[in-house]
Amino acid sequence: EEVLVAAVREQLAERFHHLRHLRAGAERGPDGARPYVQAMLGLQVWAHGLYQATRAKGHEPGHTHDCACS
Question: Which pTM value belongs to this model?
Answer without folding.
Answer: 0.71
